[in-house]
Amino acid sequence: MSSDYSKQYADFIGALEKLFHIKSNEPIEDMCSIITNTLISKYQLTINQLTKLIREAIRYNYASGANYVKILEQIGADLTGVSDYHFETEGSIKFIVMHDQIDKFKEYLTQNSISGDIFLKIPNFVYNAYHYLKFFAELSLIEACAYFGSVNIFYFLISNQISEITERCFSYAVIGGNQDIINECLKKHKMDIDCLRSIIRAHNHELLEYVLDREIFELDDLYGEDWGKAGNCMGDANYRPIYKDIIRYQNLNAVFLLFKRNKYYIFPWGAVFPQTIDIFKNNTFSNKHNHTKCEIIYFACKSKNSDICRLLLESYNQNIVNNNEGDDECISHGIYISEKDKYRKTALYYAAKYNSKETAELLIAHGIDFSEKDNDGYTALHFAARYNSKETAELLISHGININEKDKYGRTALHIAAIYNRKETAELLISHGINIIEKDNNGETALHHAARYNNKETAELLISHGANIIEKDKYGATALHHAARYNNKETAELLISHGANIIEKDNNGATALHHAARYNNKETAELLISHGININEKDKYGRTALHIAASNNSKETAELLISHGINISEKDEYGQTALHHAARYNNKETAELLISHGINIIEKDNNGATALHIAAIYNSKETAKLLISHGIDISEKDNDGATALYYAAKYNNKETAELLRVHLKICDIF
After folding, report:
1. Do 141 and 197 belong to one domain?
2. What CATH number did the domain enclosing 353 receive?
3. Please, what's the b/e burial string for 537-551 (b: 16 or more CB within 10 A of its CB; e: otherwise)?
4. Distance CA 494, CA 539 (A)
5. Is the same domain home to 230 and 315?
6. Residues 109-124: pLDDT tens digits?
7. On the chain, which terminus has fewer CB atoms closer than 10 Å, C or N?
């Protein structure tokens, strides 16, 4: 076979290059056809993978942002955070710079000035499992010209000394790809690792060849984690090694170019790409050149490359890794199969994470120990549950994995499925007899976790299979307490509809309403009240939900409680009203609400202390000021004959003491 492994994958490489360099005025039909026929049909990229790639392409080809949104629509992708984004329109100064309209730019300058360090913000639509987080790369005017390859405006700015070439210009220039701008940047700055990162991410293949031919970077540059910067030119919060960018941006051409220079440039992470199978068939590698701290089989498992996994597991002739270079380590049958990474995860964990059933089958067939646990005590089944890898979970169960095994927090795979709302996997686990009422180290069942994370679907499944709805954790809290604490109204409603005891108390005597009040969860509190909970119920310290709301400044919930007739004058076991609690924690807003609803401002506790005494003891100056403004008697004494000023002085609360002294003098004057 030819040493040029890239030729047979020219269509894949070309498709990604075209995707990252589509023109703003280019029809999208051809690109959509390539995506469908090449990337999806032939190379089996998922819509989720393509969505991530296209979102990244927006960052590196912002001028074509509107086209990318259309492509996402065409392939049925998730448009969250993108569909409502407004890209620059014709006539705006940013559009003028973007398209290097030098005459219009000069005309604009005759009537306007461009001030400030930030000219353009390019969105970084960062994705995680729950939502998209939008960050921005902030570019100056000269940096924007470099980024867009707007060479005429770029030269105009530097020749007229309007702008100077910044250090970051180089990184933007390699994205823009204009050779003249790149040459100007070379006069001022050296190419750094950020430039290499931009070249890789932007699929700038010609420039990558140029860089590699001149050996500007070394092997170690692919693996460095920390380059001494807060972030790169595109606003990433953290750096990752370059090889991870090659994987993330599916830059297969970079893989082959690096391999041509040095085979160890792609070892072992190249196994992520199924297109590298011939490389690993036809070449030998030594583990002493592995700089990733992960075995090659991990990378193959992460990307569901069952063919490469099979090659690794079934090669006895040491074609993959040999000892020729004095290294006594080799990847072969049975040697590394149960090797663990720094998190103590074996390859089977990654097969479970990515639901690579075929790879998992291979690993099991070759004797991997599937009862192994990682640093968190997870088995591969826990991992399958977390990522809803139902097929792999079923495989593990069929091979006899302990379905009730617990992690170091005492959680079974069902707890994990409940936390992450993995209903399908939860259903599978239940069908195979997992203990549905098993408790973790905190005494929580899977239903407690489903309630905490508002995973209504999984909660409903658990209840339908007999989960005890009134089961308590070690703190005496039911699932309803958890739902109330985290304001999970939908799950709370479900629990109540299935007979949850609405007045059940935890070990502190708190009802779900107390929990809702503590965390200002007005919606759930309203639900509980509508279902008839005793609004004046007390905990073991004699506190109503209003006391709790006052202690935590939960003003909105306090207002709700008052509107539903809670006893505003109720006292706890120490004789304190909600106003005493608001004063203690300096919760001025809630104190004001209580006063406006007629609470007795001079009410005393068991020690004869008013709210002002409490404010003085805890140096709650703002609340003390409020109480004084509403006419509280500053000279009032408690059972020991002490005034508020006495306590402020006793506890060295200078601010409150001074406030009280000033108002005492005013009182003396009048």
Report:
1. yes
2. 1.25.40.20
3. bbbeeebbbbbbbbb
4. 25
5. no
6. 999 988 778 999 998 7
7. C
